[in-house]
Amino acid sequence: MPSFQVHALPYHASPDAYFGRLRSAPGAILLDTGRPVALHGRYDLMCAWPLAEMSPFSDESAKDFLQRLRVASDTLSVQDIPKDLHLPFAGGLIGYFGYDFGRRLETIPGHAADDLKLPDARVGLYSWALISDHQLLTTQLVFHPQVSPSERRRLIDLFESAASPRSDTFHLVSRFQAGISEGKYQQAVEKIQAYIRAGDCYQVNFAQRFQAQYQGDPWVAYQALRAACPTPFSGFQALPGDAAIISLSPERFMRVSQGRVETRPIKGTRPRDIDPDKDAAQAEELLHSAKDQAENLMIVDLLRNDLGRCCRTGSVQVPELFALESYPNVHHLVSAVTGQLADDKDPLDLLACSFPGGSITGAPKIRAMQIIDELEDTRRGLYCGSLFYLDIRGEMDSSITIRSLLAKDGTITCWGGGGIVADSQWQAEYQESLTKVDVLLRTLEQLGQPASAGT
């Protein structure tokens, strides 16, 4: 039986050169921290050629699908993994859960149309990975013992050979169009506020989507978006038929390391300004906004409850409340909730207890999801779901797929939303939903256009 092996490669801060060699491979996936510009993440992780890929069957419950993932993961042995391996992934599961996987966990009506036809999840089982550690400035190929010597040699040769130049392109053939009118957006916010006044809920995350037609390779689009808006929980997942998930997420969902759980909900946003003084004023306003703090605290309380279902009694804490995180287009208000995973629970139990994330549903969660289904005409698909890895030792990290796009069947789809509360002003909420995705839409509308095109 081959042993567990790690093979060093030249370090690169950007994953572009290495992932370019995998882009066309089956099951290619990249989890990207946005280095060297974004500074919050430590590891990039990329894989391809999975041993298996799994999506839920049409009538399969969440419980049964998660158990199927466990069974697949168990085919990779843990016993040969070195105890001193400090890398985040030693083989295991990587993929996405779409927002609508939550319909398999909770009872939600089926009003919203499923026009994108995206599976509720797609998860691969991988026996190797390329991992860049931006703290130690290393890049390494990690091989589970199940990888054969010939496959190890093939992968080492692939990444050590000179990269072949590519001439792929991407461009839009129509500009992005909003899925609903400003007036309909106003009506939806007013309906949510009527539910709040009636005591039905406290907060509901309402989103609108934008679509355009495109031609070309979505990986080119990802590279342009990454340059314009680097974020610590970015990712690219190749899907069948040249489709792809493109995510520029700033938000962690759930992380598990040696049994310690952390989630970092975002709630509270202000746009950046090119004037340093105005930009600083925007940040200060957000930090001291009673409304944004109240919204953030609602979600912190919801997540404390979610973690409490899977963590040891008394271990759930809030070590960070109302911290400021800044990105190229927005400032965010971020908190942290932590806990210790209970002895009889695993990371997939944790996902089931907490999915979808409270910061992108509302409170109480199930009622908020029912209202979302009533007021949003179409299903969210990948939006507000999660990209994640879960290795065979139980190490997991995951994002919430906000600032994310789906490129599929010649249409690229993007979503923007925000939390609606009793004192929300619909015009401000509408503008916030645009602000969050403006840099993404503008970048793609300008991609491949002549400099004088005026886009």
Automatic annotation (TrEMBL):
The keyword Translocase does not apply. Residues 184-436 form the Chorismate-utilising enzyme C-terminal domain. This is aminodeoxychorismate synthase. Keywords: Transferase. Its EC number is 2.6.1.85. Transmembrane segments: none annotated. One of its GO terms (molecular function) is 4-amino-4-deoxychorismate synthase activity. InterPro entries: ADC_synth_comp_1, ADC_synthase, Anth_synth_I-like, Anth_synth_I_N, Chorismate_C. It holds the Pfam family Anth_synt_I_N. GO terms for biological process: folic acid-containing compound biosynthetic process; L-tryptophan biosynthetic process. Residues 15-135 form the Anthranilate synthase component I N-terminal domain.
